[in-house]
Automatic annotation (TrEMBL):
Pfam families: FAD_binding_3. Gene3D superfamilies: FAD/NAD(P)-binding domain (3.50.50.60). Residues 36-390 form the FAD-binding domain. It comes from Coniochaeta ligniaria NRRL 30616. This is Mannitol 1-phosphate dehydrogenase. The keyword Flavoprotein applies. GO terms for molecular function: FAD binding; oxidoreductase activity. InterPro entries: FAD-bd, FAD/NAD-bd_sf, FAD_monoxygenase. Belongs to the paxM FAD-dependent monooxygenase family.
Amino acid sequence: MLAARSKHICGQLQALFGHTQKKQPRETGPKDTPFTVAIVGAGIGGLTLAIGLLKENVPFVLYEAAAKYSIIGAGVGIGPNAVRAMTMIDPKLRDMYYETSSGNLTPGKENVMMDALYAGEGFSTPAPFGAKSYQRTSAHRRDLLNHLTSMIPRDRVRFSKRVVNVRQLSNSVIIHFEDGETVEHTAVIGADGVKGPIRRFVLEKAFPDEVAPTFTGRYTYRFTVPIKEAQKILGTLADDAKCFMGRGVNIMAYPISKGKEYNVVAVVCTEKPWTHEKWTHQVSKEKMLADFKGKVDERLIRLLDWAEPVQWSLHHHLSTPIYYNRRVCLLGDSAHATTPHQASGAGQGIEDALIMSHILGKVKSPHQLTVAFEIFDSIRRPRAQKVVETSFECGHIYSLAHPDFGDDFVRIAAHLNRRFLWIWEHDLEADVKKADLMFEMLTARI
Ligand SMILES: Cc1cc2nc3c(=O)[nH]c(=O)nc-3n(C[C@H](O)[C@H](O)[C@H](O)COP(=O)(O)OP(=O)(O)OC[C@H]3O[C@@H](n4cnc5c(N)ncnc54)[C@H](O)[C@@H]3O)c2cc1C
């Protein structure tokens, strides 16, 4: 009877979503045995997952290398897809996000993602792009992290725990920390960011060439300006999100902190490899400004005067052939680090957290954990990797280097009005239903 049911579900699944591939041998084991999950990394991905697991009553411990919650960068734009994911994880999460997020300041521009305009001398007439289904919201990372951490009991988090290695046993995973301690969990989720060590463990044997992140040929200067100062320089252009596009450079800027600050991400394209040991590199102010002189209007040079002259390299994971290795799975940037051009990296981590917490909420015993990760991989990897690919391509559009668009702003804006719909309008309810169906099917077989 079980076999017949599985065949039936399989048929349904194939009709709905196409073929699902069996990737790894299934484990067998006892039923209804308690299990615990380790989350490695307390960034937006790991924290959102923790909130999801709390909702689903899945026992977990969150391990973070830093001594306390830490914030890198300032602004983060959250697309409507990620806001929906927040709502599905816990409506309180969305409500808290809305309490601190900001949109465009000009009434009537609620659905505009950014105005595209030429960064060079004199600028060009701003060409808005967005969609009815899009609502502009951005927050200061500090505020977002404060909200996320306020929802997680302190006793679920262990700070100053830098993971150096993980080792799988037949029914558990041993985590080794830098301070010499080891702990045992039934499964591990690596939400440890683009440089985190868990990715090596997942991919090293089968895909050694895919472990290291790739330099994208771009670095950024990231900073905030009090909005009043930005308005003194840019006038009303500083009221709303802007994408200043220049040859080999592009500057994305938008209000955050309830309209009190203007967040700026200034991207520079380079042909040279990133050779610095660290991913941040201090330069002189003159060198920073030289990256933009002659390419952008003087007003943007004055805006850049507010920046700390620190270059942040942009690395990404353009290719990740699989997100899991038995009881160890990647989530967030460790799986799919992306460039910032589509403002979607954190949003994809939030979608990951939704699907992962939902599936883990269904797991009744440890032997179902690899199945859960297989389902997560099957649902999340195609979409998240497509975001990485298309974001990289979007960077070419923003730096006026895309062969199809060049510097034709009318065509660029028309294209950008359509470009993000598949990200923003994605049906997360369907993903959850697919996860349910796959779980029923794959656990019925074992
Ligand atoms: C300039 C820029 C602008 C961006 N703008 C946007 C935007 O507007 N919208 C958007 O959606 N996305 C944006 N992104 C992407 C977004 O910032 C990331 O996708 C997101 O923050 C990644 O979150 P994460 O939790 O996966 O990883 P991280 O934030 O990197 O967190 C990883 C955590 O793991 C910890 N860790 C690492 N190694 C270990 C270890 N060995 N042991 C224990 N802990 C460890 C770290 O200390 C850290 O706390 C932008 C990115 C950049 C670079």
